[in-house]
Amino acid sequence: MRYLSRPLATAFALAVLFAGCGGGGSDDEILIGEFGSLTGTTATFGISTRNGIDMAVDEVNARGGVLGKQVRVIVEDDQGRPEEAQTVVTKLIASNRVIAVLGEVASSRTLAAAPVAQQYGVPLITPSSTNPAVTQVGDFIFRTCFIDPFQGLVMAKFANETLGVTRVAVLRDIRNDYSVGLADVFVDNFKRMGGVIVSDQSYSEGDTDFRAQLTTIRASNPQAIFVPGYYTEVGLIARQARELGLNVPLLGGDGWDSPALTEIAGDALNGSYFSNHSSQDDPSPAIQNFIAAYEKRFGAKPDALAGLGYDSAMLLFDAIERAGTTEGPALRDALAVTDNFPGITGQITMDANRNPIKPAVVLQVKDGGISYVETIEP
Amino acid sequence: METFLQQVINGISQGSAYALIALGYTMVYGVLRLINFAHSSVYMVGAFAGFYIANSRFVQASLGTSVLAAVLVMVGAMAVCALVGMLIERFAYRPGRGPVSGVLAFWLGLLGAGFGFQVDRAFLPVAAGALIGALIGAALEKFGRVTPAPESSTLKVLIIAIGVSLILENGGQIVFGADPKFFPPVIPNRALDVGGLTIDSPRLVVLGVALLLMVLLNLIVLHTKTGKAMRAVSFNLDAARLMGINTDRIIAFTFALGSALAGAGGILVSLMYPRIDPLMGTVPGLKAFVAAVLGGIGNITGAMIGGLIIGLAEVMAVGYGSSTYRDAIAFVILVLILLIKPTGIMGKGMVEKV
Q1: What is the reported pTM?
Q2: pLDDT at B148
Q3: In the predicted model, is pLDDT for residue B346 greater than 70?
Q4: Residue A47 lies inside a defined structural domain of this protein
Q5: Both A142 and A159 in a single domain?
Q6: Of A40, A79, A203, the CB nearest to B323
Q7: Are residues A180 and A238 in the same domain?
Q8: Burial of B328 by CB count in 10 Å (0-12 exposed, 13-18 middle, 19+ buried)?
Q9: Which of A14, A25, A198, B62 sits at 20 to 30 Å (Cα–Cα) from B268?
Q10: Hey, are the CB atoms on B14 and A41 less than 8 Å from each other?
Q11: What angle in degrees, to the nearest 10, is found between the helix axes of B123-143 and B103-119?
C-alpha cells in the first residue's frame, strides 16, 4: 500500500469491502461498527449481542433514523480472540470510518480493542464487559453494564446473607481478566463478611479436564464453589464436580448466561446461582415487550447479553441525538452526561469513570431453566 | 491420602486419553519414520463423525443410549477416519514419495467444493464446485505438464503433514462450525464409588479400550503377515519392494489403521470430555506426541506408558501446584527425556538412516 496514495488505498479497501456487502456508505446514513465473538468458545455471546443490536437498529430506522439519517451496522467476527478483536476494530475505524464502535462481551477482548478506539478518538461502548480496567483505557470508552467489583460483591453478599454459607472454594479462569477480577473481589468481600475461602484453584479457558482441581477442592470440604468463568467451561466443571460426588451449589457471574449452559451441564447445575444484568421474569412492560419482539424474530428467548446489546445501541443513538452530530469528541461528551437513560436492563446513569450505576439480579438454575431469585441494589 | 489416590485415578484417566492418540502416532512413525502431524486432526474428524452418527435419526430413534449405539458410533467413526487417512496418504503423502496421478484433480476438486459450500450450503453447488475443480485439475495434469518434483524427502512429507492438518482444522471450522458442540452420552454414565474414590463408567471404558487396542496393535504388527510386511517396509522401503511387497498398499494400510485408531481416540475422549470443536486435537495431539517420544517413538507399549506418565504428571502438577503448569509439564518432560534418554523409555537405539 506504500506505493498507492492514501485516498486511492482507502477507495480500494472500501471497494473490496462493499463488493461483499452489496451496499455503500453515503452522506444520508450513519455507519456504526460492531465486533464480537460470532464463532469460538463464546459464540453465543457475540450472536446474542448482535441480535440485540440488530433489533435496536431496525427499531430506530423504522422511526426515521438518527438525526434524519438511516443507521447501518458493520459487524466483524473476532472469533473470540483478543488479537483478532484489535485487528477488526482497527479495520472498522480506519477503513470503514465508523463513527462509533459497539462491542465485545469478554473483557479481555474489549481491553485489546479499546486502545485503538481511544487513539482514533472514536467512542466505544461495550455492552457487557464488566472488568473495571476497560473504561480506564480512556475517556472514549463507555459501558452499559455494571462492573466486576459490584458483581463480586453481589455474589459475596448473596452467599453470606441469602445462602448463609461460610466455607466457599474458588475456581477461577487464570487467563481471563474477567474471571480473575470477579474472583478477587469476591474473595476480599467474602472474607470481610466473616467467611472463609477454603481453596482457591485455577484453570485456563479451553481446558476440558478439571478433575484435579475439583479433587483438591473436594478435600477442603466447601459449602459452595464460586466459579466465575464462561458457560462452556462452567458446564464441564459442573458435570465433573457431580461425577466426583461434589454436590454443593456452584456460584457464578454473568459469564454463565447462555442458552448453551444447561445443554452442556445437563442437570448438573441444578440449584446453582449466578448474578446477571436482568431477568426474563421481570414484569416491567419494557422488558416484556422486548422479550416478545425478540422471540418473534429469533425464535428464542433473549439472554441478558441481548438486552445489553440493545441498550448499548439505544444509548448511542440517544447520545447522537443529544450531541446533534456524529463527531467523536461531541459524542463522547454527550455519552458522559447520560442521566437516567431508560434501558431495558435498568436505568443507566454514567458515573465519573464512565461506568453505569445500576442494580444486579441473582438467578437460579432449575430443571434446565433459569429463575429469578432476588435483586441486589448498588 | 484419599485425595492423592483420587488424583492418581484422575491422572490415569487423562493419561489413557493421551495414550490412545499416541498409539496412532507411534505406529505410523514406526513403519514410515514420519511424524504424522495430521493425526490429531483426524482425531477431531473422528469425534465429529461420531457426533453426527450419534445424533442421526436412526441412532436416536432406535438405539438411544446403549452398548450397541456406542459400538455403532465407534465403528462408524473409525471407518470414516480410515477413509480420510487413506485419502490423505494417497493424495498428500504418496506424491511426496514420487509422481502420482490424480493429485491436482483431487485438491482442486476439494477447493471447488469449498467454494461451492461458501456459495450455498446445499448438495448441488458443492458437487458442481467439486466437479469443475476436478476437471480443471485433470486438464492441468494432462496438458499442463504439472508433475510433482520426483525426489522424495522426509522434510517434504513433514511439511505436507502440517499442511494437511491445517486444512482439516480450518475446513472443519467451515463445515462443522467453530463453536463447540456437545457430544451426546452414548454410554450410560454411572459413577463407581470405592471407599471414597470415584471413577465413572466412561473413564473405565476408555482405559479398557486403550489397553485392548494396544494389545491388538502389537498382535497385528508382530504376529501377522501384513505386520511383517509393515516391519519390512520400516527397515528398508526399496528392499521391501524388491522382495515383492506392495509397499504402497502396506503404507496405505498403515495410514488406515493409524487413522482408525485416531477416530477411536476421538470418540473415547469425547465420552470423557463431551465438548468437541474443530481445534480440539491441537493440544492433546502435541501432548500425545510427547507421550510417544517419552515412551520411545515407534514402540506401541511405550506409547501407552508415555501417555499414562504425561497424564499423571499433568494432574499432579495441577492438583498440587498450579493449573498454569498443566501445559508446561509435558514439554518439560520432553526436554528432560531428550537430554537423558533420547530414544525414550522403551525405545531401542537405532542407526540414523540418511
Answers
A1: 0.77
A2: 57
A3: yes
A4: yes
A5: no
A6: A203
A7: yes
A8: exposed
A9: B62
A10: no
A11: 150
Contact (CB<8Å) B3/A218: yes
CB A344 within 8 A of CB A311: yes
- Chain A environment of B322 (Cβ under 8 Å): 174, 202
Q: Quick one: pLDDT at residue B150?
A: 58
Decide if B323 and A207 are in contact by the 8 Å CB cutoff: yes
Q: Hey, is the C-beta of A349 within 8 angstroms of any chain B C-beta?
A: no
Consecutive H or E run containing B259: helix B247-272
Burial, A262: exposed, middle or buried (Cβ in 10 Å; 0-12, 13-18, 19+)?
buried
Please tell me the distance in Å from A41's CA to the nearest CA on chain B.
6
> What pLDDT is recorded for position A16?
46
CATH of residue A48's domain is 3.40.50.2300
CB contact under 8 A, B326 and A244: no
pLDDT tens across B136-183, in order? Answer: 888 888 887 666 555 667 788 888 889 999 999 988 888 888 778 888
d(CA B22, CA B258): 10
pLDDT in tens, B37-55: 899 999 999 999 999 998 8
Measured distance CA(A14)–CA(A23) in Å, rounded:
10
- Examine residue A35 and state whether it is found in any structural domain, yes or no: yes
Question: Residues of B near A (CB-CB distance < 8 A)?
Answer: 2-3, 6-7, 10-11, 13-14, 173, 177-180, 182, 189, 191, 193, 198, 200, 273-275, 277, 283, 314-316, 318-320, 322-324, 326-327
Strands ordered across the beta sheet of A101-103: A70-77, A29-36, A101-103, A124-126, A141-143
Nearest residue of A to residue B182 by CA position? A264
Look up the ipTM and state it. Answer: 0.77
Give B99-139 pLDDT, tens digit per residue: 777 888 888 888 888 888 877 878 888 888 889 988 888 88
**pLDDT of the residue at B321:** 83
Q: What's residue A358's pLDDT?
A: 85
Q: What is the mean pLDDT of residues A57-70?
A: 91
Q: What kind of fold does domain B2-99+160-340 have according to CATH?
A: ABC transporter involved in vitamin B12 uptake, BtuC (1.10.3470)
**Are A155 and A134 part of one and the same domain?**
no
- Of the pLDDT bands very low, low, confident and very high (cuts 50, 70, 90), residue A263 is confident
Q: Cell numbers at residue B214, please?
A: 494396544
Please state which of the ranges A287-296, A352-361, B196-205, B244-253 shows the lowest mean pLDDT: B196-205
Taking CB atoms and an 8 Å limit, are A243 and B191 in contact across chains?
Answer: yes
Q: How many domains does chain A fold into?
A: 2
The residues pairing with A76 across neighbouring beta strands, listed in sequence order, are: A35
Least confident of A290-294, B60-64, B258-262: B60-64
pLDDT at A4 over 50: no
Domain around A307? 6-146+285-358
Report the pLDDT value the prediction gives residue A70, as an integer from 0 to 100: 92
Lowest mean pLDDT among A19-33, A135-149, A197-211: A19-33
